[in-house]
Amino acid sequence: NIMILFGPPGAGKGTHGPKIEDMLGIPQLSTGDMLRAAVSAGTEVGKKAEAIMKAGGLVSDDIVIGIIRDRIQEEDCKFGFILDGFPRTLAQAKALDKMLADEGACVTKVVELEVPDSVLEERITGRWIHKSSGRSYHVKYAPPKSMKLDASLKPIPETMTDDATGEPLMQRKDDTAAALTKRLQSYHGETVPILAHYKPNGVVRAVNANQGMDGVWGEILASLQRKA
Ligand code: AP5
Ligand code: ZN
């Protein structure tokens, strides 16, 4: 079971990934989360990635391919995994195919979350995340239980805390309108072409991600149940 959760920034990869993880018992591997952890820890990779990520650019193929190569060799990936944010270029897709072929495996499903660009700015600029778990919230669509608004109906930052741990939430440095424009450019220019690479294998399932989260989840479930 090797799944790719595919879609633009704000499509819902990080929202639905953990639910698929719970359901199938295989880990969600988010290159974005792994890179953000490297930035926080100040590792060599983190130092190289920090400015690129903040501006909404793509980190080099070598770095992310290396991260995934190491990660999928770990014990918990033995029965499969869910990729979130990888592959993002044709070179990454080909490197992934090669790694998997060496183990006699291949990508078994690509779930494509389809959303028009026009709705993504609101999703991205309203997102708050719990850093250590990667859980995401939204001021309008998925507010934390603790959220309080000020007189102008803006959330009061100190009240933005994680439902499970009570720890503070934060906003991502790349969740600005300017960085989103760049992220969308690389999504359409470099990432979307990967779909044509997987389509001949009959593994791509499109899901309408421009609806409420429950509706999206229902379609994801249906796409997973449908035979490849
Ligand atoms: P990454 O972390 O992968 O970011 P991304 O692809 O831009 O995707 P997002 O995390 O922004 O979106 P999501 O789909 O997870 O949305 P979410 O579910 O949170 O990558 C970050 C950066 O790292 C890249 O720009 C790049 O620099 C680098 N990087 C990572 N991987 C790389 C790679 N392979 N190669 C090179 N560089 C790489 O939802 C968003 C918000 O909307 C949330 O607040 C959520 O609550 C809300 N929401 C979700 N669904 C709905 C809905 N149906 N209705 C209303 N609101 C919703
Ligand atoms: Zn994400």
- List ligands, each type once: BIS(adenosine)-5'-pentaphosphate, zinc ion
Strand order of the largest sheet: 2-3-1-4-7
* Whole-angstrom Rg: 17 Å
Helix content: 40-55%
Oligomer: single chain
Distance between the termini: 11 Å
SS field, number of helical segments: 9
Count of distinct strands: 7
Characterise this structure.
This protein has 228 residues and is of the alpha/beta class. The chain is 43% helix and 13% strand. The chain has nine helices and seven strands, in the order E-H-E-H-H-H-E-H-E-H-E-E-H-H-E-H. The strands form two sheets. Strands 2-3-1-4-7 form a five-stranded parallel beta sheet. Helix 4 runs parallel beside helix 5. The longest helix has 15 residues, at 177-191. It starts with a strand and ends with a helix. The relative contact order is 0.18. Zinc ion binds at residues 13-14, 30, 32. Keywords: Kinase, Nucleotide-binding, Transferase.
